[in-house]
TrEMBL record, chain A:
Membrane topology: Multi-pass membrane protein
Protein's name in the database: Sugar ABC transporter permease
Keyword Ion transport: no
Similarity comment: family membership: Belongs to the binding-protein-dependent transport system permease family.
Pfam family, one: BPD_transp_1
Keyword Transmembrane helix found: yes
Source superkingdom: Bacteria
Residues passing through the membrane, by range: 25-46, 99-117, 129-149, 161-180, 201-224, 266-284
Biological classification of the source: Bacteria, Pseudomonadati, Pseudomonadota, Gammaproteobacteria, Thiotrichales
Keywords: Membrane, Transmembrane, Transmembrane helix, Transport
Annotated GO biological process: transmembrane transport
Subcellular location: Cell membrane
Any one of the GO CC terms: plasma membrane
TrEMBL record, chain C:
Entry's Gene Ontology cellular component terms: plasma membrane
Protein localization: Cell membrane
Annotated protein name in UniProt: Sugar ABC transporter permease
Residues in ABC transmembrane type-1 domain copies: 63-276
Membership in a protein family: Belongs to the binding-protein-dependent transport system permease family.
Pfam families tied to this protein: BPD_transp_1
GO biological process: transmembrane transport
Chain segments annotated as transmembrane: 12-30, 66-88, 100-120, 149-174, 195-220, 259-279
Main location: membrane
Family matches, as PANTHER family: ABC TRANSPORTER PERMEASE PROTEIN
Keyword set includes Flavoprotein: no
Keywords from the named record: Cell membrane, Membrane, Transmembrane, Transmembrane helix, Transport
Entry annotated with the keyword Nucleus: no
UniProtKB/TrEMBL annotation, chains D, E:
Coiled coil: none
Top-level taxon of origin: Bacteria
Originating organism: Leucothrix arctica
Protein name: ABC transporter ATP-binding protein
GO molecular function, one term: ATP hydrolysis activity
Key words, A-Z: ATP-binding, Nucleotide-binding, Transport
Length: 300, 388, 287, 361, 361
């Protein structure tokens, strides 16, 4: 090569990487350890739901099923009793969907409008209302149950789907508005100004410019709201009628019923079945979620 | 006409009993729309009351038999059933008559009782005592005396679930057994704080202290988990209401052979008569109102009573029905009832507020060994003094 | 009126803020001074409900528990969330898998969480049993049955459910840190852990604030979890204020007492939050 | 010159902070006005007021003789181009151009026609179906200009349209904007930080400072006869050399290491006092060196301190009596640090400013 | 010249995308090397490789004769200054300066001394207790430089350190960096987009394109004898004028409307072929106009198309036979669009490039 031979010796190319550096062992070790902590309950739920009752009484809860049975799942879905109705979770499933869809849409819509108005159309006092709203996130909801019953009654919405949608919208509003406000604040003012010069008004800008840009934050809002609304039990049962009771009512009945023996396998199957919808949504939108949070949540 | 009926009877036997009611109602051409909420009395109360306040109530609802409904009645939200009662002659047929009294407010009747439950029973496992090599006790003091032997044999002498209402139930049963009737009435009915702080109750607390010591090793939550221990012979006994025998029955055990029941803990053969009742919120629709009254009448009828109570394992609210199929323990109960050796139920004499105070106190007393009997009694006095 | 549309669009928000949040709060505070039982009434009794409240052991225990749970869950969630996020941010393989694993519990309700953990922590057949059957005969691990430890048993479940979200928030925050900062510290020869502690964490203040708000708004409401896991037991060892409120309002049918308790909760929230809200929204006008 | 935009006594405050203070400005029809000033002096704020994006605190704004102080931005007949382009990211280029027209309910056929015409003018025909993310910076800015163009507005407002682009592109687009102005003859108000842009584009330049217009004049007047020291210092790169001193009634300047007669200096009337404290300013390109210095009225010996070759020419930092003299020489000139050289200048190219008021004498 | 940094056959790929392709570079001790190139050409990547912040795909890096290819960044004796400053925001200026030293366990007293010295050199003594948020851009960049300075490193790496600053500040700091280099005599590698910075600061400039060094030479050679058309076009503002044509063996250039003899052009040996297709390039400042044009070897009549006054001088865009001729005249010169003028240039100032290889002839 060159005449300066002393320079040519020695390392060349990429630094060799060993798989088992202390750093890697630490990083992956810690991650795996935590993964066990997070997965353990899921494992327990799954294996238990696949065991028969005798096996549950005998073995330990972590061991995989000797004999796999899907009976608990069948029972949880279509046979478990709530009072005199023995049709399992299936009874409430469609109700849950029926509640979930309008509640999610309306609550996100309202919150996004709020966030938009608060970030781009501030008016006198708007920040005060926002502060009140955020403080509202910390109010224990128990204390608002009765007053809201009365308000809904006066509005003639009590017991209807739309009453419940309204309740979900109200209770989701603080965090949702916060998310959207932060997100929209991050959208350059210039874009908003350009649209105003182009003759778009409040709604025009919102619908044609802002909404199409807010996919990441909508994903976050959707995930949070779907989780909350789908898992809700109390509001669903207090503000609606049996025709509309969500799936969690059946889950609650299955899990909380004081019967001869607790059918753990059915409980677990029911639990998993109920959690399925949000879980699926989580796994589908994992990456978007982090991106959305980055865009909307972490700009204090 | 379709009527929505709310209740919290969701366990197997309970659901079967409700099915009987529903069947009977449907047979008469109406439609029973079932709305069951397994949230226990408290959770359900929030739901039921919200529904009534929300102006879109159910057709009929289970509510705690007692003073729960007073304010709803005052607010004019519950249906007046006096005309039904008069037509069906409830005054005559409902036994004991105190049941109807608790449905009565200012002379009008607002609810239809369905069954009677009594909470003061001691259930004993024959197997446990056999394993310990001692005879089955015949009353509370023998039971206490047998505790060390049970303990030695690796049995839990007394099984008490950790829920607050169980602690309170156990304490109340012990009170009646230890103090006798008069002091109990003075404290709970007359709210006499002096008696609550007096000698008799001191003894009660000491007895309760013994009971908690021999139950300390138990780790179960639900009452039927505790009952299951008695059934299996892992525990010597449990103080529980008559609904426990449903569990024994379900496990195929025979009263007198596999287990023994001692009403009033075998000391005072007195039982109190709680139970469930149906209330009927005021509805706008006249047809539904008529259906409500039909349901009210139906609940009291003989056939319904028999069918319901056999499945539920509780006692009927009328003395003129014959439960041939009833078992040993049930019969003991009917006999006491017939002899009119009855006490009012706790929920009839104290408010839900006081009840919850008592439960808070008892559950703490039962689970915190460092709480002395003196301290417990002192707080008990406070609660009674505040009670209304 | 240039902002007319904005104001019209804000009506739902204004309504919610004023009527629901302010209105209901005021209504609640007002009725906490009455002897309302099953239904709200107007019989003024002054501070009676409060005197009784602070004379009630269960309330005091509840407040203590909330304090322990709150502080621990804040600290632990933040630590776990940050550590996990930091590890995930180290350009590792299978990042997506790990992230999903850490996040999925958040999809489950507290009821479900409580149930599962109640089960795992049950000494009869849970972790303790397994450990004992593995040879550690004397191991006792029954936090849910030990009055001194029960709140920590609940904490384990609470952290399990909620820390994934915090991890996500932290991860998002870490991703927002200027890459040049990392380069600068490497050139300066600063160890990774030192960089995190002295440089990165201080830079993530707004992220921590968001995380704290999220955790705190959950803590104050921890109710479902306690109900599902222990129902407040053993005894009253794991009672929490929200459960006290609920029980007094609906079980004991003593609205006045429940309202007094919830007013106390509000007061404590306000003490923590109002200075923060002031800084956030009042202090700096432009943002 | 007919007035296209007049601004009367404009005031704008954010809270208690007055950004614009009683600003008056008349802009002629078809004029290209550049707003120049340091960061935070209120340029963007002024532009936003004209566009109607900010509500004025006080004063009036007229566009084409019509009081538009209360009009909506879209009704003012203005188009605006932003530094960050502010294209609607989810729309195609075509969608971006059409958005304003659709809002104004312009007929479809007309929209198509105008877009085609605009695309042709800006040479973005081939980009019409792309989204902004798929465009380079220069292309984006062209689209942003197109968005204003397509609306057939009378007044163009540019807020630092080129500062996100790299130097080469900036130069190209600058020329294009100038061509566009020649072609369209619209009124244009152009905010920039870049002196070269300001000098080359402007019919008139308004130098702003702290919400006040310091000088409003043609580029050459601004450059050659700055109204005050701030403007003199702000304009020109490298900046003007300044020297303190006094001026006596015989027009002799006396400062540290520099004495000269400024007879022949075109004083603004009534500005000369006895022994006035003044700043004397000389632009670097007016300082000559080597042979050229021999012909200058004022000459001195200097030491070269720093040589900055810039290709076509070279900047020299030299020192005379501890005073710095910066000047430019041809790129070919050989000069190294430490050299002793002769420099000189002619008094007619000087600027003199009062030391207190900093106004031009 | 002793070599301070040598880079041998450096390759770096992101996945299948080769950013640096077999790059070789020798940088002398105390040399100021500027890396210049369009965006994305791999300048930052090269800097990061030298700093050890990126793991190379192949090749070796030596600093002061030591093979540092596998060393940690902190062990390489380098300091780096970033465009975004990358100051630790929650530490005071002093904390920022001290952080690296504390980590290296330098004694307290020594740290104090070094900080004091650095602060003095950079004139930031008064800022030591402030936090970065309370500093202006220029001050921040000074602190960032100080952070490298205080560590007494041999090699400074600058990645576009001034591009976030405004023009005036940029000019000032540029001079300061140059002074610093004179004072410290460290090796410096400096990445920039800005030609002025490159020309004024560099001992040598490396022009990069697509991961390859196109030319590595002193600024004047780069400017006056660019190695290929890319370099010629890249350097110089306004850019060089290019004309297509053929070159016959008698050294006569023949293009559209332009024929001249290039006898006397200093050809690189062996590059001349028969009737070669070439590019002819003339820098704008080498085109003379008016009187000066009369003395030029090549002269022609032109029409002024665009006049861009820039204060000290003016750029003219003129047309001859549909070909553009850009040139500069003095700022004082009066010229308006549409004027007919005479322009001319001397062949010795030309550049000639082969049309295929684009290499200099
Ligand atoms: N919404 C606002 N609230 C309060 N102050 C503001 C607001 N917008 C701008 N300012 C202040 O007004 C002054 C002028 O701002 P403006 O944006 O007009 O400056 P500029 O001249 O455009 O500066 P730049 O060259 O940096 O764009 C600045 O001091 C700025 O801090
Ligand atoms: N981490 C990465 N992964 C993949 N590609 C990368 C990465 N970093 C840089 N590149 C690519 O490598 C090329 C060189 O990037 P580099 O940052 O070195 O350019 P640069 O010359 O510094 O440009 P600029 O002047 O814009 O800073 C670019 O095309 C860029 O897209
Ligand atoms: Mg601006
Ligand atoms: Mg770069």
């Amino acid at each position: 090569m060159t005449d300066e031979t002393n320079l040519v010796d020695g390392p060349r190319g990429p630094k060799p990487k060993r798989a088992f550096t202390r750093r890697n062992i630490f990083v992956y070790g810690t991650l795996l350890l935590f993964a066990v902590y997070y997965l353990l309950p899921l494992w327990v739920m799954v294996v238990t739901s696949l065991k028969g009752m005798p096996e549950i009484r005998m073995g330990n809860i972590f061991s995989p099923p000797v004999e796999v049975t899907f009976q608990p799942w069948v029972k949880a879905w279509s046979e478990a009793c709530t009072g005199i109705n023995c049709d399992g979770l299936s009874r409430g499933f469609w109700n849950s969907i029926k509640i979930l869809i309008p509640s999610t849409i309306v609550s996100i819509l309202i919150a996004s409008i709020n966030g938009y108005a608060l970030s781009k159309w501030r008016f006198k006092g708007s920040e005060t209302f926002f502060a009140i709203l955020v403080l509202g996130a910390f109010i224990p909801y128990q204390i608002m149950i009765y007053p809201i019953v009365i308000l809904l009654r006066e509005a003639g919405l009590y017991g209807s789907l739309w009453g419940l949608v309204l309740v979900h919208t109200i209770f989701g509003m603080p965090i949702m508005t916060l998310l959207f406000r932060n997100y929209f604040t991050g959208i350059p003012d210039e874009l908003f100004k350009a649209a105003r010069v182009d003759g778009a008004g409040f709604w025009g800008i919102f619908i044609k410019i802002m909404l199409p840009m807010s996919l990441p934050i909508i994903v976050v809002a959707m995930i949070l709201q779907i989780t909350g609304i789908w898992n809700d039990f109390l509001f669903g049962v207090i503000y609606t009628k049996p025709d509309l009771y969500p799936m969690t009512v059946q889950l609650n009945n299955i899990v909380n019923s004081v019967q001869g023996v607790k059918e753990y396998n059915v409980n677990m199957a029911a639990t998993l079945l109920t959690g399925l919808v949000p879980l699926v949504i989580y796994f589908i939108s994992g990456k978007l979620f982090v991106r959305g949070i980055a865009a909307g949540a972490v700009k204090g | 006409t379709e009527l929505e009926v709310s209740h919290w009877w969701t366990s197997g036997g309970e659901a079967a009993a409700v099915t009987e009611l529903a069947k009977a109602f449907d047979a008469s051409g109406d439609k029973w729309k079932d709305s069951a909420i397994a949230a226990g009395g408290g959770g359900a109360a929030a739901i039921i009351i919200s529904r009534i306040l929300g102006g879109d109530p159910m057709g009929a609802t289970q509510l705690n038999h007692g003073r729960d409904a007073e304010e709803l009645i005052k607010a004019g939200l519950l249906q007046d059933l006096t005309d039904v009662a008069e037509k069906e002659n409830w005054r005559e047929i409902i036994r004991p008559s105190s049941l109807l009294d608790s449905c009565t407010f200012e002379g009008r009747i607002y609810c239809a009782p369905v069954n009677i439950h009594s909470p003061q029973w001691l259930w004993l496992s024959h197997k446990a005592f056999k394993d310990a090599g001692i005879p089955v006790p015949k009353n509370w003091s023998e039971f206490i005396a047998a505790a060390p032997a049970l303990d030695k044999a690796g049995k839990l002498p007394l099984a008490v679930g950790q829920q607050a209402w169980q602690s309170n139930l156990t304490f109340n049963a012990i009170t009646i057994a230890i103090s006798g009737l008069e002091p109990w009435k003075k404290v709970y009915v007359d709210k006499n704080a002096e008696v609550a702080g007096g000698e008799e109750f001191k003894k009660v607390f000491e007895a309760a202290d013994q009971a908690r010591k021999i139950s300390a090793k138990g780790k179960m939550q639900d009452w039927n988990a505790a009952t299951a221990m008695v059934i299996k012979g892992d525990a010597g006994g449990q103080i529980m209401g008559d609904w426990a025998q449903g569990e024994f029955q379900l496990a195929g055990q025979v009263a007198g052979e596999d287990y023994t029941c001692l009403p009033g803990l075998g000391v005072t053969e007195m039982i109190s008569t709680g139970g469930d009742a149906f209330y009927f919120p005021v509805l706008k629709d006249a047809e539904q109102t008529a259906a409500q009254k039909r349901l009210a009448a139906l609940i009291i009828q003989k056939d319904t009573q028999v069918a319901f109570n056999l499945k539920k394992g509780s006692l009927p609210i009328r003395g003129d029905v014959d439960l041939e199929t009833a078992n040993d323990c049930m019969k003991k109960g009917i006999k006491i009832l017939a002899g009119n050796n009855v006490l009012p139920d706790l929920s009839q004499v104290i408010s839900a507020d006081t009840m919850s105070d008592l439960e808070d106190l008892m559950v703490e007393f039962w689970n915190d060994p460092s709480m002395t009997t003196e301290e417990a009694q002192e707080r008990f006095v406070k609660v009674i003094a505040r009670a209304d | 009126m240039k902002n007319l549309n904005a104001k019209i669009a804000s009506i739902p928000m204004i309504f919610t803020a004023l009527v629901i949040f302010v209105g209901c709060t005021a209504w609640t505070i007002y009725h906490s001074f009455t002897n309302s039982r099953l239904l709200p009434n107007n019989n003024w009794v002054g501070f009676d409900q409060y005197e009784r409240l602070w004379d009630t052991k269960r309330w005091i225990v509840s407040v203590g528990n909330l304090a322990i749970y709150g502080v621990c869950s804040l600290v632990i969630s933040v630590i776990i969330g940050f550590v996990l996020a930091a590890l995930l941010d180290r350009k590792i393989r299978f990042e997506g898998v790990f992230r999903s694993i850490f996040l999925f519990p958040f999809a489950l309700s507290f009821i479900v969480t409580g149930l599962v953990w109640q089960w795992i922590l049950n000494p009869e057949f849970g972790v303790q049993k397994v450990l004992q059957s593995l040879g550690w005969e004397n191991v006792t691990f029954d936090p849910l049955y030990n009055p001194d430890l029960v709140i920590y048993g609940i904490l384990i479940a609470g952290i399990w459910q909620g820390s994934g979200l915090i991890m996500c928030v932290m991860l998002a925050g870490l991703r927002g840190i200027d890459g040049d900062i990392w380069k600068a510290t490497r050139v300066d020869g600063i160890k990774t852990w030192k960089t995190y502690i002295f440089v990165i964490i201080p830079m993530m203040k707004p992220v921590f604030v968001t995380a704290l708000v999220l955790i705190a708004s959950g803590i104050i409401k921890v109710y479902d979890l306690v109900l599902a896991q222990t129902s407040g037991g053993p005894g009253i060892a794991s009672e929490v204020p929200a459960k006290y409120v609920y029980d007094k309002m609906f079980n004991a049918q003593n609205l006045g007492q429940g309202f007094a308790a919830s007013t106390m909760m509000l007061v404590s929230v306000a003490i923590v939050l109002i200075p923060w809200a002031y800084l956030q929204f009042g202090g700096k006008k432009n943002d | 010159m007919q007035s296209s935009i007049s601004i009367r006594d404009l005031k704008l405050s954010f809270g208690s902070f007055d950004v614009l203070k009683n600003l008056n400005l008349e802009i002629g029809k078809g004029e290209f006005l550049v707003l120049l000033g340091s960061s935070g002096c209120g340029k963007s704020t002024l532009l936003n007021c004209i566009a109607g994006l900010l509500d004025v605190t006080d004063g009036q704004i007229f566009i084409n003789g019509k009081n538009v102080t209360w009009e909506e931005p879209s009704d003012r007949g203005i188009g605006m181009v932003f530094q960050s382009y502010a294209l609607y990211p989810q729309m195609t280029v075509k969608g971006n151009l059409a958005f304003g027209l659709k809002n104004a309910k312009v007929p479809k056929a007309e929209i198509e026609k105008r877009i085609a015409r605009t695309a042709e003018v800006l040479q973005i025909e081939s980009l019409l179906t792309r989204k902004p993310a798929a465009l380079s910076g220069g292309q984006r800015q062209r689209v942003a200009i197109g968005r204003a163009l397509v609306r057939h507005v009378d007044v163009f407002l540019f807020d630092e349209p080129l500062s996100n682009l790299d130097a080469k592109l900036r130069a190209d687009l600058r020329v294009e904007i100038k061509r566009l102005h020649h072609q369209l003859k619209n009124t244009m108000i152009y905010v920039t930080h870049d002196q070269v842009e300001a000098m080359t584009l402007a019919d008139r330049i308004a130098i702003m400072k702290g919400g006040v217009v310091m000088q409003l004049d043609s580029p050459s007047i601004i450059y050659n006869r700055p109204a005050n020291k701030y403007v003199a210092d702000f304009i020109g790169s490298p900046a003007m050399n300044f020297y303190q001193g006094t001026l006596d009634k015989d027009n002799n300047f006396r400062g540290d290491g520099l004495s000269l007669s400024v007879t022949g200096y075109p004083f603004e009337e009534g500005r000369v006092a006895q022994n006035q404290q003044v700043w004397l300013g000389i632009r670097p390109e007016h300082i000559r060196s080597a042979d050229a210095a021999q012909q200058c009225a004022v000459q001195m010996g200097a030491i070269v301190e720093l040589v900055e070759p810039m290709g076509s020419d070279t900047q020299i930092w030299s020192v005379v009596d501890k005073q710095n003299y910066r000047f430019r020489v041809d790129g070919q000139t050989e000069m190294t640090e430490g050299d002793s050289i002769r420099i000189g200048f002619d008094p007619e190219n000087l600027s003199l400013f009062d030391r207190d008021s900093e106004l031009r004498l």
